Amino acid sequence: MLTIYEDANFSGKVTKKYFEVKSDKAFSQEDIQLLLSGLMNTEDPRYEIFKNKKEEIVKILPAAQYEAFDKNIKMNTIIKKAYNPDTKTLNTEYFLTETQRKPSEKSRLKKCW
Predict the structure, then answer these.
(1) This protein's superkingdom (predicted)?
(2) What are the two backbone dihedrals, phi and then psi, of residue 22, each rounded to the nearest 5 degrees?
């Protein structure tokens, strides 16, 4: 996808539209790759598809890999919200509150650091 890194929001909308049109067909390996390419946080339009189509996705992608990817997306969302690009600082209070509020994310955090 040409715009995946140039305009992630547009890319997400295009991908979402693709899956709306394809809604009645089974997922292929290429579909999963398309869905996961550029999916960086839970605010991305593709994340809704990722969550809603879990059952179909895990027919191709191992469930453990799906769960690891989901945890990573959630952690990326927390980091994105906690980071201020203007000051290049992390809102540690928000970051710790969010990661402690979600036990699965807390264990993921320990693995990352």
Answers:
(1) Bacteria
(2) -90, 5
One-letter identity of residue 44: D
20-30 pLDDT, tens digit per residue, is 888 778 889 99
Which H, E and C letters describe the chain, residue by residue? CCCCCCCHHHHHHHHHHHHHHCCCCCCCHHHHHHHHCCCCCCCCHHHHHHHHCHHHHCCCCCHHHHHHHHHHHHHHHHHHHHEECCCCEECHHHHHHHHHHCHHHHHHHHHHC
- Angle between the N-to-C axes of helices 63-82 and 92-101, in degrees from 0 to 180, rounded to the nearest 10: 150
Can you give the pTM of this predicted structure? 0.74
Angle at 9 between CA 8 and CA 15, to 5 degrees: 85
pLDDT at 113: 44
- CB-based contacts of 87, cutoff 8 Å, min separation 6: none
Q: What is residue 5's predicted lDDT score, i.e. its pLDDT?
A: 60
